[in-house]
Structures are given as C-alpha cells and as structure tokens.
Amino acid sequence: MVGEPGPLLHFLASLTLILAVAHALGALSDRVGFAPVVGELLTGLVLGPSILGAIAPAAVAALLPLDDGVAGLASLGLVLLVVLAGTEVDPSRIRGSLGPTVAVAAGATLVPFLGGVALGFALPTAYLPAPSQRLGLALFLGTALSISALPVAARVLVDLDVIDRAVGQLTLTVAVVVDAIGWITLTVVAELVRSGGVDTVAVLEIVALLAAFALVVLAVGRPVVDRLGALAARARSPVLSEFAVVLIVGFAVTAAGVGLGLVAVVGAFLAGLLVGPRSDAETERVLHLVTLGLFAPLFFATAGLEVDLTVLADPAAAAIAVAALVVAILGKVVGVALGAALTELTRAETACLAIGLNARGAMEIVVAAAGLALGVLTPLLYAVVVLVAIATSVMTPPLLRRAVERLPAESAY
C-alpha cells in the first residue's frame, strides 16, 4: 500500500466516520430507551443523501460510493451476526417447537405477502415503471413486505438479553423459516420478471437444494467441527483457538451456500448451529465483542447509506409510503396472530413474536434493490420500501422491550 495513500485514506476515513457515528447514535438510542441497533440503522440516513446530503452534498460525494473494503466488512457483519444468532439457538428447542414454528411462519409470511400484492394492484398507473409490469411490481412488494430481518431480530434479542428465553428462541427459528421462504419467493419472482413466466421444475429444485444443503451441513459438519475443536484445544495456541474455528466454519459454510446459489444467511445460520454447542464462554464473549463492536454496526449503518428519502416529500408519495407501512405492520401482526391461534402460545408470547418478526431491516432493502435493478421498482417505490424497512426496525426494540416485560418469569411455548 506504500505509495497509494488515496485508497487507503478513503478506506480508513470512511470506516472511522461510519463506526464513530454508528456507535454514538447507538449509545444515544440505548440511553433514551431504544436498542443500539436503532442508532446504527439511522446512521445510514444521517450520513447519506437524506440528511447530510441536503446539508453538505460535497461530504456525501466524498463518502460515496463506499470503499470496497468497507462494503466487504459490512457483508462480514451480516454473516457474523447470523452466525452469532445460530450459536444462541438450542437445537432441542427447535425440535420441540416445530409445530408453532411452522404455524407462525406460515401466517407471518402469507398475510403480509397478500397485503403487499394487493397494494401493488391498487397503486395508480402513474407510479408504475410501465403498465405491463404491474404483476411483477405487486409480487415484489408482496415479497418485500413479507420478509423478516433475522439480523435485526437477533441483534434486538441480544440487546434485550432475551435471546436464550423460549420466545426468543422461537422468534429466531421462525425468522429463519420466513427468510428462507422470502428468498425462495424472490428467486421465483425475479425469474418471472426476467422471463415472463415461472419454471415449476426450477422452483422445486431450489426448495430441494435448500433442504439437501441443510441436511448435509448438519450431518457432515458436526464431526468436522468436533475434530477442529479438539485440535484447537490440544494446540493451546492463541492463533488456533475455538474462536478461529467459529470463523473458519462460519465463512466456509456460508461460502458453500452462496456457491450453490443460496442466500448468505442460510449458510451462516447453519454454521452457527454447528459451532454453538462447542463454543465455550470465552469464545462466545469474543464473538459478541467482535461482531457487535465492529462488523454489525458497519452492516446496519451502510444498509441505508445510499438511500435518498427526500423523494417522499411529495404528498402523494408520502401517502403511498404510509399505506405500505400500515400494510406491512398489520399484515405481520395479523399473520402471526392467525398462526399462533393454531398453537398453545399465550397472548404475551404472540405479542413478542409479532413485534420481533415485524422488523425488516436490511433484508427488505436487499429485496428492494433487486426490484430496482430489474426495473420493476421505480426510485420512489424503492424509497418507500426502504422507509418501511427502517421504520419497522426502529419501532421493534422499544415495543419488544415492553412486550418482554409482560412475559412470566419462565415462559414456554
């Protein structure tokens, strides 16, 4: 890097600024009763075109586009946060809560999806990229509003220290199922938009691949992780440690999933399930510090860094944004309630699930970006979806905190 101070300077300056603002806003959010993740999510708006860009456009121009190194670290934030979530899940509880998981996930996915599709068909033609793309637009809105943000849910549950409780475990497992359905739906919808039709065989192949990948990873991965853990214990080296095993397994399984065409969160969560039972207290502490201190804030902060919400200043556009937010929130709440009605979940547990799964976070932004790239979403509708993602993520921590306080000391599902 000697002789090339430009790229290095831009990388370090961007990294310093984003981390400083993210941690400052995170601490402020925590102080006023929110979770730190709220401040981290708002960092992108503060440093992006929505606020700083309106005050000092030159500063935003200097910060964007993001350095590839910062973007890469942000991607690692997504992976490590989901690995961390996976380590907190008790596999025995997953087996014991299979019925509630399926019921709640079905309701939490289907109802908001139908609401988003209905909203897409109700939009005035003037807000469509083209009249012929209404179906694709409606399906993209349905997919975006039905998804839940596993990284946000995991971070909030960690911040509130309820991730080990029964309802926290169920929230994580349901979020994984909802996200998996969402990514399969996104793949199908994208294929429909590109080709004008859906190949049923291709859809079945995706589902089969997802199931096969999970089975192979959990079956083959356990003895491999056990051997790596034993090797690290014998080495007694600060280099080859349990934490190093967590990183290697996390990155390897995630890379394998991505290489097969699966979304990164699937492999990362499976990796967390593998390494969780072998992780000691020190490994868990280091994983929390590294993930929540460096990588996760970068991921959340950069998620909305290039979003310009000033396009929503138009009253008609603002009305569409409000309608989308209402459909998203009510769809998720009603869907969770309908699914929970088929189980023995209490009202307090159902409320926690409805609130925890309501956050969309950067996962919804990824769906919106795909729609924008395919020409199905206009910049205005992209901004609407981003607003829903940020608003629901900001609402979740304080509401979930109150809902958790109403749970009995030992809650079971």
UniProtKB/TrEMBL annotation:
What molecular function does GO assign, one term? antiporter activity
The organism encoding this protein is Haloarcula nitratireducens
Which Gene Ontology BP annotations are present? Answer: proton transmembrane transport; sodium ion transport
Q: Which GO terms describe its cellular component?
A: membrane
Kindly list the places in or outside the cell where this protein is found, as annotated in its UniProt entry.
Answer: Membrane
- PANTHER family cross-referenced by the UniProt entry: NAPA-TYPE SODIUM/HYDROGEN ANTIPORTER (PTHR43562), SODIUM ION_PROTON EXCHANGER (EUROFUNG) (PTHR43562:SF3)
Primary location recorded for the protein, binned into one broad class = membrane
Instruction: Output this protein's name.
Output: Cation:proton antiporter
